[in-house]
Structures are given as structure tokens and as C-alpha cells.
Amino acid sequence: MTGFPCFRMLRRWGSGHRRDLPFSARASGGNDKAVTPVDSNLSDVGEGPGSSVTRAVWARVMRGAVEDAVRAYEAMAAGHRDRVLEEALVVPAATRAALVEVLRQARDFAGAAQLLESDGDDGAAAPMYEQAGAPLLAAEAWLRVGEQARAAAAFERAGSLEQALVLYQALDARESLAQLLGRMNRPLEAAEVFRALGNSHAELEMLRAVPADDPQRPEAVLRMSALLDAEGATWRALVLLADGIKHATGAGLVLLQAEQARLLRQMGLASPPEGAIAAEKAPPVVDGYGYLKAIPIFDGLSLEDMRDLYRLARPVLVPAGTTVLEKGAKGGGLVVLLEGMVSVSTGPGPDARQLNMLGPGAFLGEISLILDGPVSAHVRAHTVVRALRVTRTDFQYFLETHEAAALRIFRLFTQSLAERVRALST
């Protein structure tokens, strides 16, 4: 089997790097070992196609008996399945296409992808590679057909972040670029992109991640101070500046002291208060991170995963009387209440029955993150509401780029769903 090592390796490669596939020059050419073609009589030709070990599949493929061929293929030993794939490289294109459908139904997505690639059909091979759990090979296939956005996302899933970065930059996909820079521990660059996008929430998160010993930390502190002051959190800005001044030197120290003096004048203070007093006067931070972390389906996520998810959330301000989630609508996403009250009712009309009143810490729409069904209740802002919203689109991006977190979320989601079903049935 020296001429065709790839199929056995394929079952172990996962999302690793591309191997030298024997059919990379396309099917029916470039192989270093001749394989006897399948003939119409499927006679026993020893180790060639249609031999005793693979005839069960080929006979059914040639007859067009797809379901029978699927069962025969599934029942084969792994080595015999590899042999079928090797033989497929030299059969007529129509026969190979029929085998691809057999492999797809047998859920040998990796084998189907390789055969599609051997025929030059990278557009069909790429999603098959994704189903096979081979995002790197999927990315390369997407790239060959000019699907740069899909290639970038697949490279990111595969952990090839530099390749994804180059593509996001070429596409000017700034939201994806900013998120990726954050994952690559390049917080200042990420913050700059988020600032250009007008996403002050994510910008602040990235600036907080700049290490204390980074030469650009004073610059990050200055920008954070400006953001907090703009939000009305001037006391928090003063606390941040006081801490930054302790670690700054040179020009950075001068800039921080100047900003501190400006805020003190704004507050009508003559001198900086003691750190403990300033911290005590600073209002409690209600940024929603703790509320988001407390949602059951996010239980068990690592610190890094939680911070990435929190950065995807968008702050929203909802006037009193405005609809937050519309009954029957799709794609509402997750809403986490930070301030204010909402009314949950059976519908939007005047005859609708009120089901509940919810306040800070409550969350709505988490099921829609995973199941894209209609909203089951009508939610209206009873007062002015400040909240965080995670859209289904952003959450799907999170799941695709955080595989371990996705597994935990799906496990907890199914457990929660099962508990709800049990509660309804008792």
C-alpha cells in the first residue's frame, strides 16, 4: 500500500496541516501505483478494484443501489474502506461521483472531500472537510475557489490565526479582525479597530487587557479614562488614573497626571483623594460580566472564553415602552438586563396577560442563541432599560471559533432543556 498512504492517515489528522495527498494533481493522473479500473463485470482481479474485499461496495455503486452500497461500506473494516477510496481515483468520473454520494450518506465526509478535491471540485470539498472536522483543509479549499471570508473563518477555527488575519485585513472585515486581534493577545491593535467601529464596550475590554508593564499602558489608561468619563463614571476614571500613576514614568506619567488634574477640576476637587476613598466613592461597576457569567449555559467556561464572549455583547439603551423582544419574531438573541425593568407578557396587544416583571441580572432569549425559533413571549421596557445583547450571528461566530466552549455550552443546553421538559411533564 505504499502508493496510497493518505486514507489511513486521514482518520487521524484532525485539524492538522495538509499532507501530501497522492491525488493532489487530480484523479486518474500522477499516481505512483497503477490500479486496475473497475470493469462492468466486476471480475475478481486480485488486489484491484472489484476484488473480493471491495466488490460488495463497487457492485452496488455500479447498479445505483446507493442505500445498499452505504450499508456495505459502513460494514467494511477501515483498511478495506481505504482500499475503496484508493480504487476510486482511477474509475470513471460518473462512478466516482456516485461513490461520493455513498460516502456522504455513510458520513465518511473526509473521504468524500478528498475525492471531490481530486476532481477539482473544491467548492463542494470545502464544506465536506468542515463536516469532517478538518478546518485547515477546508480553509485551503475555500481559498482555491476564491471564498476568502469562508477561508478566513476556517483558518481561525483551525488555529492558523496569522493566515486568518491576512485575509480579514484584505477583506476589510473589521469586526472579525478586531475579535481575532483580541484572541492573538494584541489588545491595543484590537482596541484601535473597535474604536473605529464605534464599539466602546469592546474597546474598553481590550484596553483593560494591556499589561501593566507594557510601554503603551499609559496610553491605554488615558483612553480608558476618557471612555469612563464619557459614560459618567468619572470616579472610576480617577481610580484608574491613580493606579496608573503609581506604575508610570517619564512622559507617560506626565500625561496621566495632566488627565487626573483635568478630571479633578471637573469634579471640583483640589487634590486627588486617597485611593481607598476614591474607590469607596466610585459607584459599583455594573458592566454585566458577572450577570453573563451566571447564565447556566455558560457555567464552566474558562476565563478566556468568558472574556471573549463578553466582548461580543453590545450595550443597548431601551426607552420605556419600547419592545425589547417581539413575540413570534426570530433572531432575538440574548438580552441581559443591567438596569431598569421589563414586562413579559403573552403578546403585544392591550388584552395580553402579564407573565412577569424582570430587573437587573435577568436574562431573556438564551434559547434563540442555539435554536433559531420564534420568541415565545413579548418583552417590553417598563422603564428605561440598560442591557447587553448578544446576537445569534455573533454567538455562532463564538461557537465556531471556540470549540471546547461550544461543547460545554451544548452539553449544558441539552441538560437545561431536559430539565424543562421534565418539569412540564410532572
Structural commentary:
With 426 residues, the chain is of the alpha+beta class. It has three domains: 6-120, no CATH class; 174-281, Serine Threonine Protein Phosphatase 5, Tetratricopeptide repeat; 289-425, Jelly Rolls, CATH 2.60.120.10. It has helices spanning 6-13, 55-63, 66-75, 78-87, 93-106, 109-118, 122-131, 135-144, 148-158, 161-171, 174-183, 187-197, 200-208, 217-230, 234-247, 250-267, 275-281, 289-293, 303-312, 392-401, 403-425, and strands at residues 314-318, 323-325, 334-339, 342-345, 354-358, 363-364, 378-381, 385-390. Strand 4 and strand 5 form a beta hairpin. Residues 1-48 have low confidence and may be disordered.
Task: Furnish the topology, listing elements before pairings.
Layout: H1 6-13, H2 55-63, H3 66-75, H4 78-87, H5 93-106, H6 109-118, H7 122-131, H8 135-144, H9 148-158, H10 161-171, H11 174-183, H12 187-197, H13 200-208, H14 217-230, H15 234-247, H16 250-267, H17 275-281, H18 289-293, H19 303-312, E1 314-318, E2 323-325, E3 334-339, E4 342-345, E5 354-358, E6 363-364, E7 378-381, E8 385-390, H20 392-401, H21 403-425
Antiparallel strand pairs: 1-8, 2-7, 3-6, 3-8, 4-5, 4-7
Helix pairs in contact: 2-3, 3-5, 5-6, 6-7, 7-8, 8-9, 9-10, 10-11, 11-12, 12-13, 13-14, 13-19, 14-15, 14-16, 15-16, 15-17
GO cellular component, one term: cytosol
GO molecular function: DNA-binding transcription factor activity
Organism: Corallococcus sicarius
